Every structure is written in structure tokens, then in C-alpha cells.
Amino acid sequence: MTLNLCVLTPNRIVWDSEVKEIILSTNSGQIGVLKNHAPIATALDIGILRIRLKDRWLTMALMGGFARIGNNEITILVTDAERASDINPQEAQQTLKIAEANLNKAEGKRQTIEANLALRRAKTRVEAIVETIKRIS
């Protein structure tokens, strides 16, 4: 392994271990990070974090935040994060259905913005599960 990755939320350490490579969703698109990546600080969008270990990939749902990369250290600070393996598929699908319904019945700008955000979070959780299942198959 060549990079140390630390994923933190306000309440817990989600990941703190060495990795070969990561792919993360920034506000301006996805970036891949390998050993000796140029130093960078970037805002993170709601999206998927892909983590490559020696011979396999893991997937994590990130709920937006900030990443700092430098000296083969990656620190990711996010509002919330879940490993795909920790997400209950039935609960994630139900949350997605509720988020879609809430968006359809949203009234006013504020409710629409909040409903869109909840929908993006729900879709990201489902996407993390689907991607993990595809990798296993």
C-alpha cells in the first residue's frame, strides 16, 4: 500500500488505513489519487468514494465535505459517510422512495431545495450498494 486514507465525520472515524488508490467526487468532477499525487485541497460533493486496496475495491457513500491531499496522506472530512457494506439495501430503497415522494409534494423554494438534497443523498447510498454488488458479481 502507498497512501494513508483517513475519512472522518463529526462523530467518528469511518476509515483510517493504507490504500493503493482512491476516486472521489469533488464539486468540479471526479478525481483519482495515486501515490505522490500533487498537493490539493478540494470541496467534496455528495457522491461515491471508491477505495482500491491491494486486489479489490471498496465503495463508500460520502455526504459532502472537504479533502486534503499531500505527502501521500489523504484526509477527508465529511458531514456523514457510510461504507456500502454497512448500508441496508431495503432501508436505502425505502429512503429513496420517500425522498422522491417528498420532492414531488414539495411546495416552495426551500422545501424543493431540501427535498432535492435528501434525494441526492438517498441516490448516493443506493448507488454505493449497486456498485458493490456489481463488483462482487
Mean pLDDT over the full residue set = 95
How many DSSP helices? Answer: 2
**CATH secondary-structure class of the largest domain:** Mainly Beta
Q: Mind telling me the CATH superfamily name of the largest domain?
A: F0F1 ATP synthase delta/epsilon subunit, N-terminal
Q: How do the helices and strands line up, and which of them pair or pack?
A:
Layout: E1 3-8, E2 13-19, E3 21-26, E4 29-33, E5 40-52, E6 57-70, E7 73-78, E8 81-83, H1 89-104, H2 108-136
Parallel strand pairs: 1-7
Antiparallel strand pairs: 1-2, 3-4, 3-5, 5-6, 6-7, 6-8
Helix pairs in contact: 1-2
Architecture overview:
A hairpin with a 4-residue loop joins strand 1 (3-8) and strand 2. The protein has helices at 89-104, 108-136, and strands at residues 3-8, 13-19, 21-26, 29-33, 40-52, 57-70, 73-78, 81-83. It contains two helices and eight strands, in the order ββββββββαα. The longest helix has 29 residues, at 108-136. It folds into two domains: 3-84, F0F1 ATP synthase delta/epsilon subunit, N-terminal (ATP Synthase, domain 1, Sandwich); 87-136. By secondary structure, the protein is of the alpha+beta class. Helix 1 (89-104) runs antiparallel to helix 2 (108-136). Strands 1, 2, 3, 4, 5, 6, 7 and 8 form an eight-stranded mixed β-sheet that branches. It starts with a strand and ends with a helix. It is found in: Membrane; Plastid, Chloroplast thylakoid membrane. Produces ATP from ADP in the presence of a proton gradient across the membrane. Keywords: ATP synthesis, CF(1), Chloroplast, Hydrogen ion transport, Ion transport, Membrane, Plastid, Thylakoid, Transport. GO terms for molecular function: ATP binding; proton-transporting ATP synthase activity, rotational mechanism. Residues 3-81 form the ATP synthase F1 complex delta/epsilon subunit N-terminal domain.
